[in-house]
Amino acid sequence: MFSRWTLLTTLRRYDRDQAGRDLLAACLVCLLLVPQALAYAQLAGLPAVAGLYASILPLVVYALIGASPGVALSFGPVAVLSLMTAAALAPVAAAGTAAYLAAATTLTLLVGVFLLLMGLLRMGFVANFLSHPVISGFVSGSALLIAVSQFKHLLGISADGLTLLQVLPALYMQLPALHLPTLLLGLGSLALLVLLRNLVLFGVPEALALRIRQLSALLLMLLAMALGAALQLEVYGVRVVGTVAAGLPPLGLPNLELGLLRELLPAAVLIALVGFVESVSIAQSQAMRKRQSINPDQELLGQGAANIAAACSGGMPVAASFSRSALALQSNVATPLVGVFAAVLMLAAVLGLAPLLQHLPQAVLAASIIVAVVGLIDVSGLRRTWRYSPQEGIAQLATLVGVLLYGVEAGILLGVSLSLLLFLWPTSRPHMAVVGQLPGSEHFRNVERYQVVESPSVLSLRVDESLYFPNARFLEERIGALIAKRSSVRHLVLMCSGVNQIDASALDTLEAISERLHSAGVQLHLAEVKGPVMDRLQRSEFLQRFGGQVFVSQYQALRTLDAESTARAMRAQ
Amino acid sequence: MFSRWTLLTTLRRYDRDQAGRDLLAACLVCLLLVPQALAYAQLAGLPAVAGLYASILPLVVYALIGASPGVALSFGPVAVLSLMTAAALAPVAAAGTAAYLAAATTLTLLVGVFLLLMGLLRMGFVANFLSHPVISGFVSGSALLIAVSQFKHLLGISADGLTLLQVLPALYMQLPALHLPTLLLGLGSLALLVLLRNLVLFGVPEALALRIRQLSALLLMLLAMALGAALQLEVYGVRVVGTVAAGLPPLGLPNLELGLLRELLPAAVLIALVGFVESVSIAQSQAMRKRQSINPDQELLGQGAANIAAACSGGMPVAASFSRSALALQSNVATPLVGVFAAVLMLAAVLGLAPLLQHLPQAVLAASIIVAVVGLIDVSGLRRTWRYSPQEGIAQLATLVGVLLYGVEAGILLGVSLSLLLFLWPTSRPHMAVVGQLPGSEHFRNVERYQVVESPSVLSLRVDESLYFPNARFLEERIGALIAKRSSVRHLVLMCSGVNQIDASALDTLEAISERLHSAGVQLHLAEVKGPVMDRLQRSEFLQRFGGQVFVSQYQALRTLDAESTARAMRAQ
């Protein structure tokens, strides 16, 4: 609906200048996309060409349906989703079999349908439950796991596994079988990549060095393909990508067996959420630069459709890539139509590259994957979180370690649960402050932090948390202790500026507190109760029963109650 | 440690008057405890005498170690824990076997050790995570489930099961086999109980009617034992309690096989928590009447020791009983030593009653269980929760239905998770209000609820929730929308009186918001930031980077910023 309007708006204003900028950006993106597509397909356990296929139709569909006008995401295969795909498919079928390919297609379809449904139900907010520390821990953990999972290709051995606990022992067992030519090729590729990415250190001008850095993976692969074709490396036992069926991606519907769908569904949901969070973060940071905003629900529709397109063209799950989107932005991209140009270029690449691919050594792909993902390990983010909030640092570290030891899904679930529990934990023992009046103002502040005036007969207590079942008894104990120490107090005013909810348990507790205070000769009052909380209190019998007043401000409360006390004291004299 | 002091204090002041009151209360409690102990043992799938055994040693131990001075809890078997015991033991062994008895002892030991550990670690607060609606739903559901589980005894058939889904079909299948004499006996017992409990309706004076009501279960059982012995009911096919080994409870250590321990641990944890919550609630309500307070950690130690004692005397898990504790309080009990008196009386009961028990029909026990638990079904509590807070009503109902359909443990876990999620849900879409100054005061209120004054150049936004990952993006969107509509705004002041935490994700978002506002020519400021939140912000670089000020109050912010704007406007003229 609204998506078509966006496209129309873009097309109506589209001119030659914009087209030129989009085409240039598309060329640059494709130079990065080709090697990434090949490598990530290998990471997902799929034939290299599947990565190329996944970089055609989905790009067109996303450009036409999803893209917000000011945003130029580069869709296609991404490292983390490829790792998650391999983890999801491993229990279902053996990599390399036809069943594995069929299951990959089914998984991609599920991802697409789930994203589409979320978009139609306007559920984009669900992604908010992945906190920044969890995402950072997850990305770092995945990057490490991906890097380690590629060691087998560098060593020329077989060591499968989805977690460090599986991969490391397998690597150790197979180490004696390592293939020296493959290892030399792999280490050489790594060294070449590191060199090409750091030419600026050797005095190459910055702009040129940056360009070479962006093309480094492609340069390496072209070199490797040429070397492979010239030397026939497979004859020496070096594993290569092997024969690739040239031609267009096969169009067709995936396997929809119910048992398979059920088995893949949980993984599909997580892949969809992770892909969405990654893409939306990129989109949002791009939109912010241009002072525009994005529509997360429309993004969901576009990403869902793109994944369905990927499923129908024999591909793998797709999302926006950090590195390629950044490159497109640097290249002064104009509109989302860059995706259409890139798709056409990728189509040409499939037709042209397929014959060359068969001699490309897997060790070279592994080297380019390792170099790409190592940059994602976010050590400074970890340190920053630790300093600001150690418990969130724990959630971040738990996610990272969880991903490494138990896999991507377990790591994310652990991180999200831990984040929620760590948020809940302090709410169960809330901060409370006895407050007094700031002299000369109507404001009340913590008696322990400010020089304030307290009334002898009125105790003002500020509760810095919603009142709900885990902290209700805590409030009761705290008030009991405070009152026990202050014999002259006749009124207790709860300052509710920080109370955003009062649940049924806390309401019961407030009634109990009020009764207990009555029998100690103290009247409970409330002040600064927020509108939504007050609306709900009025639906209970508490306000009639507790005998106190609800003051609009703490200042009002003190003025009224202090005056009463003084009047009573004067009458008593 | 502190527990011994409590006992010493009690003993030092103990006089003849107190002893007399305690003895009388103990007699009355035992008249209720004997039939309950027999019935709850049947409910737990244990021999009737196990209930009596569990009412001796644990009472002494709790009186000496746990009891807070002003509190007189009646320890011993309780209905809900007996149901949970049956559910925990069913997968481990068949009821009636020696393995079942051994497992029951092991379970009780685990419960005791867990409570003791919680007490030593001062973890009494954990019980707070069971919200009132969850407890109410759990008690009502258990009561219903207990009542239905006793129908088989009324009908004289076999229909085992731990949930309604298991019990109801079993009852239906076995219905044709019903034993008419048993049914008549059961219905007759029910009718007699209902009659004895409602004599006040037939003109009996209130005090006498109350006394008879309290003794009704005992009267019924004595009558049934006499009838059983006279008529030899078992000859007619009526199932009876059967031969009971008279004598003292067997002292000895339980089976400590590792596999069994691991299998029973989750159930033991829940039994311990539920027993603790029940006991602490009773203790707290009693202490409140006497204007005293209890020490939850000491209660944990006492209850742990009591359960270990129960395990060592061949018994079943014990806790405080609502009905018996209320009776003790009505009987003007003086000190916790009532438990010691009651234990001595129960010892006599074991020795004297054992021979009579063998002719007691199970249907009579079933009738007394049903009448006892039906009173626990809390319909008015359900209605009250629904009115105050429908979503907590859902948690309550889910717990109730969960207990009925999936068992006690699943019900509680469902209820607790749902309660936490329902608390989190509104925090993910927090209430925010644009606020203005109440004329003639320093206070700021929602512009939609109050007649307030707004500044054209300063936008004041109050956020009624802690800022954390699920709501961070929501804040960003909301601020974007607000600023877009107000072109004259130069300053945005976030009023943080309701912000009790700011997590790392929200901090990132605040930085992003601040940058975005800068580029729109608006400066972000904070006001009324609480001490603990400020302490943490100072550990980040946000305060240096965001370029705004942190005001002690919203009033201060407005005065400063409005003055600046006016000065700038005057300079411009």
TrEMBL record, chains A, B:
Cited InterPro entries: SLC26A/SulP_dom (IPR011547), SLC26A/SulP_fam (IPR001902), STAS_dom (IPR002645), STAS_dom_sf (IPR036513)
Statement: the UniProt record of this protein carries the keyword Transmembrane: yes
GO cellular component terms, semicolon-separated: membrane
Domain of life: Bacteria
Keyword NAD attributed: no
Pfam families tied to this protein: STAS (PF01740), Sulfate_transp (PF00916)
Subcellular location: Membrane
Single GO biological process annotation from the record: transmembrane transport
Key words, A-Z: Membrane, Transmembrane, Transmembrane helix
Membrane disposition: Multi-pass membrane protein
Main location: membrane
Residue ranges occupied by any STAS domain in the UniProt entry: 448-561
Membrane-crossing residue ranges in chain numbering: 49-65, 72-94, 100-121, 133-151, 171-195, 215-233, 264-283, 333-357, 363-382, 394-425
Name the record gives this protein: Sulfate permease, SulP family
